Amino acid sequence: MAPVSIKEVAARAGVSPGTVSNVLNRPEKVAPPTRERVERAVRELGFVRHGSASSLRAGHSRTIGLSVIDIGNPFFTDIAAGVEEVASELGYAVILGNSAGDLSKEERNLLVLAEQRVRGVLITPSGEDPAPLERIRERGIHLVLVDHPAHRHDQCSVAVNDVAGGSMAVAHLLGRGARRLAYVSGPLSIRQCQDRLAGARQAVRQAGLDPAVALTELSLPALNARYGQQAAAELLGSGLPDAVFCANDLLALGLLRGLLQAGVRVPDDVALIGYDDIDFAAASAVSLSSIRQPTHRLGRIATRLLLDECDNPAGHVHQQIMFQPELVVRESTA
Ligand code: RIB
Prior knowledge:
- The chain has 14 helices and 12 strands.
- By secondary structure, the chain is an alpha/beta fold.
């Protein structure tokens, strides 16, 4: 059966094809009674507009891209949920790209998003090089950084103060009496891991201790539970600290499992704190203390910023929003 055409909808509603196009693309420009007649005809005939045709005319599609570092991390699925909520409210679909920390894969994903004529891109960059993002902006695609502060005023970003978060985590451990600490992280090429380490060192110095002596650093290839278990084995082999700060909850949950399997008591032998406060943190065998990020809000606000920049370029004001994280104390440091 041939797809219903705009002309058939126009005939059914008693308007011109141009009026139907206006209802589909600029409904605010059509008088409500006319708009309702067209919308009724669309429903009755089962008209579905052709995405690529309308995006060719408009120069973009009703889609936005979201590029994250690790879709296996609940932190990013929480962000994606916030993004999708706002995008759907505003009539957009979301195309998801997962870099898995691979810079070349990230850039390939960005090019595919550009070819799909997405309206704009939300990205948590895997690296610090701005060039790939500049190449996307040069194509006229709006771009907002998520969980990554922008260092230029003509670039929107929504992030969390990870230096403050790292400092908060380690000050909490020191406040419990810990004096021999370990920071278990992913690759320090990841900005979030760097900033959390800087905050950890800051707290150690503020306690009058030398980070080179009081803070052991252990960097793993990725921030997931498997490497968290590997970190437990390494710490057990090299001598357990009083307390461990993990750069995210997945590492902390893996480390917790490794320590408990080895008969280590948490927090009595080793206190442990993570970062993100994903849902599993509260539900783990020993509930995990963590540094909470406003993840869902990050996704919602970043999407509103992006679509305002796309749909209201003249009136849009670029913003670099920085949230403060929050300490959540549970059994693993009680
Ligand atoms: O991507 C690594 C980490 O950085 C995530 O767990 C989250 O904390 C993000 O900020």
